[in-house]
Design goal:
By secondary structure, the protein is of the alpha/beta class. The chain has a single domain, classed as 3-Layer(aba) Sandwich (Rossmann fold). The protein has 5 helices and 7 strands. Strands 1, 2, 3, 4, 5, 6 and 7 form a 7-stranded mixed β-sheet that branches. A hairpin with a 5-residue loop joins strand 1 and strand 2.
């Protein structure tokens, strides 16, 4: 588990890295978590975008920095994992290539940092109900992972994801 990283010498923050194939909804999920809005027009992420969120959870203040990483930078994934508290792997239920991508990236993460906490997020772009993808079944079972299913367009599953992100982080300062 990673400890907080200093932002300005006063407030610690936790680095949360979002990875996934292009077009699976990483940016939409992050924007819904941070700003409660989702763009209706798809614009691919180029490089890395950072989003900050201050969150009160169980009387503690958490400063989260979400890293929205373009998969065009996948050759640098190991570099992005440095000082990361949680990695969120995002796939789209309807995109089988995104399932393969998640399997490959999970292996890279484990090689680089075997103890890094990984959350698996399935995006339901239209809000339809989906069964867990058969291409991810072994990954889920062998690594005791839970799939957090959500739809940013419908604001479904967002609070569960935030809770999952912060629940095992070291406790920061108590809110006064």
């Amino acid at each position: 588990m990673s400890s907080p990283t200093q932002t300005n010498g006063f407030d610690p923050y936790y680095k949360i890295v979002f990875l996934g194939k292009q077009g699976v909804g990483k940016t939409s999920i992050i924007r819904r978590l941070v700003a409660s809005n989702v763009e209706t027009e798809y614009v691919p992420t180029l490089g890395i975008y950072y989003y900050n969120l201050e969150l009160e959870y169980q009387k503690y203040n958490y400063y989260l920095q979400f890293w929205d990483v373009s998969n065009s930078l996948e050759y640098q994934i190991k570099d992005f994992l440095h000082n990361t508290a949680v990695t969120v792997l995002v796939f789209d239920y309807k995109d089988k290539e995104s399932h393969t991508y998640v399997n490959q990236v999970f292996s890279t993460i484990r090689e680089s940092n075997p103890s890094l906490r990984v959350l698996l997020v399935g995006n339901r772009s239209k809000g339809e109900k989906e069964k867990p993808p058969k291409y991810l079944k072994n990954l889920v079972v062998e690594n005791n992972l839970i799939i957090y299913t959500m739809s940013p367009q419908n604001n479904s599953g967002m609070s569960l994801l935030l809770q999952a992100i912060v629940q095992d982080l070291p406790r920061p300062t108590e809110k006064e």
